[in-house]
Specification:
single chain, five-stranded parallel sheet, Glycerate kinase, domain 2, six-stranded mixed sheet, alpha/beta, elongated, 14 strands, 36% helix, 2 domains
Length: 374
């Protein structure tokens, strides 16, 4: 095939390269091979950690940095973005900026809070923004978004009628939810949640049991968190809100997805689909001859809501190549999904590829171009 325009759209190689670094390495080698290639770079994320940088790297915008409450109650700096999206100012809120696993000292499965996310939203409201894209993922929390809601004026009352900010371990102490003082600007605003998971709020596939362990929750703590989320869902139903326990995506980011749906009237959408739309992927793909993506490990999860999933849904019949650290998909799976895989482990051991990807990505790009232009 003849290649003139290449769309380069990798995810990060976790623990090894950022998406921006991966895109640069791929682009540099393509330019070395043929200086006439027209290259379009969209370093990508799936709606979780890194999404803010992805969007601000593709679309002109402003980064606002403020002081917020960390998951473990300290004062930290966190950023959000404001972009001009379809002639409308849009705030990009990445929850991991304020309430991510990396924003705390140690692990705090029962006490970690999303209060900082609410502070980011409140600051954007103060800036006059009324359209929000909330990127969830990489969270330290399992509080059902109650911390976020507290920062926006929602009051949670215990059995003595005292107001408090619930965390995962204290959700069962909520006796009443008072929405009377919720920020009135929320009703004037539109909120979209970008999520790469479809987990419901509670149950064996819910936030506590599936994602609690990576946040430090032992089996007993997972049970406490799940029962707390179930209690929260029951109170929200009594307040006339939808049942979050079975809502797809409500379990994202420790229930923040469901909390946004309840307290912000947010719509939960596929993170990668929304990011591809925001970064003009569908416009660029129409002019591309070849699409090159990449990630640390190409496996079955890559086909379930990750970056590759969105690309395959919208590639418009253009060939898709994946420069990946390793590949766990069979040839039959690759052929079925029409993906050409070029794993770095074809050239060196896994540990060496993780340690020194800059040595092997050029080799994979060379083999890719050789095969695609035969």
């Amino acid at each position: 095939m003849k290649i003139q325009t290449v769309l380069i759209i990798p995810d990060s190689f976790k623990g090894s390269l950022t998406a921006v670094e991966a895109a640069s390495l791929i682009a540099d080698e393509l330019k070395r091979i043929n200086s006439q290639f027209q290259l379009i770079r969209i370093p990508m994320a799936d709606g979780g950690e890194g999404s803010l940088d992805t969007i601000l790297g593709c679309i002109p915008g402003e980064r606002h940095t403020i002081t917020v409450c960390s998951p473990d109650g300290r004062s930290i700096q966190a950023s959000y973005g404001i972009i001009d999206n379809a002639h409308e100012k849009t705030a990009i809120i990445e929850m991991a900026q304020a309430s991510g696993l990396t924003k705390q000292i140690g692990l705090h499965p029962l006490t970690a809070t999303t209060y900082g996310v609410g502070q980011l939203i409140r600051d954007a409201l103060d800036q006059g923004i009324r359209h929000f894209e909330i990127c969830v993922g990489g969270s330290a929390t399992t509080d059902g978004g109650c911390g976020m809601a507290s920062a926006l004026g929602v009051q949670f009352l215990d059995r003595e009628g005292r107001s408090f900010v619930p965390a995962g371990g204290s959700l069962q102490d909520i006796q009443k939810i008072d929405l009377q003082n919720r920020d009135p600007r929320i009703a004037e605003s539109e909120f979209i949640v970008m999520s790469d998971v479809n987990n419901p709020l509670t149950g064996p596939n819910g936030a506590a049991y599936v994602y609690g362990p990576q946040k430090g929750a032992d089996p007993q703590q997972q049970k406490i968190l799940d029962e707390g989320l179930d209690h929260l869902a029951s109170l929200l139903i009594q307040a006339g809100m939808p049942d979050l326990r079975t809502m797809p995506g409500a379990g994202a980011a420790g229930g923040l997805g469901g909390g946004c749906a309840a307290f912000l009237n947010a719509e939960i959408r596929s993170g990668i689909d929304e990011l591809l739309k925001i970064t003009n992927f569908y416009q660029y793909v129409s002019t591309a001859d070849l699409i090159v993506t990449g990630e640390g490990r190409l496996d079955s999860q890559s086909l379930e809501g990750k970056v590759l999933t969105g690309i395959l849904k919208g590639n418009n019949g253009k060939p898709v190549c994946s420069i990946c650290g390793s590949c766990a998909l069979s040839q039959e799976q690759l052929q079925r999904h029409r993906v050409h895989a070029y794993p770095l482990t074809a050239y060196a051991a896994t540990e060496e590829c993780i340690r020194n990807p800059t040595a092997y990505i050029p080799l994979a790009v060379q083999d890719m171009i050789r095969e695609m232009t035969e």
